[in-house]
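Write out the 3D structure for:
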Amino acid sequence: MGVSRGGFSSRMGFILAAAGSAVGLGNIWGFPTQTASNGGAAFVLVYLVLAFCLAYPAFMAELLIGRYGQANAVTSLQKMSRNLWQKRFAFLVGFGGIVCAALILSFYGIIAGWMMSYAIEPLAKMLSLDGLAQWVVTQGTLRNLLFTAVFMFLTIFIISRGVEQGIEKWSKRLMPMLIVLLVSLIVYVTTLEGADQGLKAYLQPDFSRVFDADLLISALGQAFFSLSLGTSVMIIYGSYIAKKENLVTLGAQVTVIDVSIAFLAGLLIIPAMYVAQAQGVAIFAEDGSLISGSGLVFTVLPALFQGMESVGLVVAFAFFVLMSIAALTSSISMLEGPVSYAVERHNVERKKATIAAGIIIFIISVAIVLNIEFLLDFIAILATQYGQPIIAMLCCVFVGWIWHRSEVLKEIQQGNDAVEHSLFWKIWPWYTKFVCPVAIAAVFIHSIL
């Protein structure tokens, strides 16, 4: 590993950074919404199984590509290639992941800006600044541009400082804060009236729904996308891991943390929904469907916080700070994709590359804000429902079909001498070669239909 590239200084540094990338709004916002819309506890059970049976193997494939290549996504994939067509294919996959990460960040920054604005509202109310409190939670072009710019500035600031002093240092600070806030909110919400009904819905599965086709595909998609797969992020993070580290256990630890925080998020938000319902807030339609859907965080939860009177301001502030931290731990990984490519392929100084990439992505965000009713959903669907599954599937194809099995084994053995005789090696190679591409293809087909 070249000194100029930098790298994670410790195992814990990588685990927290990779978990931070995986633990974003998709876990704390998306997972509870999916759970509420897809059978509650039955969805949770299926999600937990699929996260380890399908998402973890694909996650390992991307980490291996990165550590083997010790470079950005494009260069790492090209190092595995043996002829011209494979190198061209590698460029398409690697650069496609970088573009996908940039597009996700362009709309993600807008939503993260909303989280920050909602965190300011309770503070403004405490200071009797009612006009400001109303402005920060009202949809408007100026508000959206301002908070998107603030969020992008924070992301640029962290990435410009490099791997150890930027990504690792801030992940070590933000992830513990996120976990403490999440657990504290769970403890408080579960003491409120109606929470026991929410806990029952979340923890007692209806086993008759476990094999429902829509539930299975939705759970697979949530498990897969929550690990930041298909965006070149884990290839890059893998490239910063020392060769002495055991990738099999590192990957498993990150997956456990990611799944655990998603589970904790559900343990907060599902009971909170039923608490809000007990206070007279409409949550479900007559047919049992979720009324708010993806807008749950901005409609149901603020209504719940208002019902808590003065303590609700403190809880609202803590919750939206939590959401903002979750967004930031993911956004820094997304920006690292285009930055590492510019630094290593075009010899651009890191700080300049970070500022340039951040400004370009912010310009895309501005275009989305100015055409928000059309472009927000369009870019989100393009990147997450089309881009991510295709790129992730092609990464599995690379590891399963193009990279020589003996070279794959040699790479895994660095840091894990006995892996050849382990259950992991007996299952993972054919799993990545056959099962993962088919499963990802199923998610993709379901999403476009």
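DSSP finds 18 helices and no strands in the chain.
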